[in-house]
Amino acid sequence: MTETTLTKFPYRFDVVGSLLRPTDLKQAHKDLAAGKITAADLQKIQREETKRIVEEQANIGLKAVTDGEFNRSWWHLDFLWGLTGVDKYDYHQSYKFKGDTTRTDNVELTGKIAINPNHPFFESFKYLQSIVPEGVLVKQTIPSPTMLFRDNRSDNWNKFYDTWDEYLVDLSKAYRDTILHFYDLGDRYIQLDDTTWAFLISKLNETADQPEEHAKYVKLAEDGVKVINGAIKDLPEDLTVTTHICRGNFKSTFLFSGSYDDVADYLGQLNYDGLFLEYDNERAGSFAPLARIWNNDSHKRLVLGLITSKFPELEDKDAIVARIQEAAKTVPLENLALSTQCGFASTEEGNELTETQQWAKLNLVKEIAESVWKDA
């Protein structure tokens, strides 16, 4: 972005990414696994449902729409499996959500990491780009490269690299090449979703009085900044890159709690155009860290996730407006925006609400934003 122009995205009211999977799409995945239908049959249903939810998002008035992540089962793993040098394996452990258990799929390195020019997400993007209404932007979501640091996914790095830093350089390049390929296909808005920072909030807190352990998580945070900024450096001026700092989202449960305070300085170093931040309940702490996350960057927007995607009850409009005004005491109102705190279905299981309730949540985001910002 130029030094005199505030990024146009994220929009004042924006969608995080994932949407509830319809019943016929869920059934199609089961039928494919059982050998009752072909991959082509599944794709037909997936594309029909993607077209429908694109129209729904446009009808609400969203200026950027996603494919609901209907082309994947997990918000992160399907993309990572598609990279060169990465494969799928059974982790034999469930990810530790509060109140539920997940499937045990995971990722492992099987070679040097690089872009996969035939990544299936590129074909999905081309289809999405072909069906969006005129004047509506496609928002492409993928997991952050830091998601390869977690849950034993990089354990094999020393089989393919002499040093950890060489691996990090290749990881940044694989992502940068992938982002530029999306750009060449017409993408102008991409979001890197990330639970690593919420994980670090917990770990930096837990190890505050354990210097050696604490140093490991400080190094992880520093490496995260290095890899992300390497992945998004020197991108085209008209490409907006944002992130969603997620605390975990599985069947309306969560993974992590804690204030952004412990990671605010690292988040403030990230060269994103916008950060989507979860602020839908007391687990997120106060707005005080926003100043350090924003870091006096007049071109950056912080998107306040004040509307929960986990539960169907609609928030009180006046209460949300009051919270926005409270946040504006720390970061200028013109550098703020509004969204739900997360998507509605980070995995295909989805959160505990109906599709009608999902659209009502997004409508509420729009209505509140239009009442707060004149340029919404």
From TrEMBL:
An MF annotation (GO) of this entry: zinc ion binding
CDD domains registered for this protein in UniProt: CIMS_C_terminal_like
GO biological process, one term: methionine biosynthetic process
Superkingdom assignment: Bacteria
InterPro entries associated with the record: Met_Synth_C/arc, UROD/MetE-like_sf
Residue span, Cobalamin-independent methionine synthase MetE C-terminal/archaeal domain: 15-348
PANTHER family: METHIONINE SYNTHASE
NCBIfam families for this protein: PRK06233.1, PRK06520.1
Protein name: Cobalamin-independent methionine synthase MetE C-terminal/archaeal domain-containing protein
Species for this entry: Secundilactobacillus collinoides DSM 20515 = JCM 1123
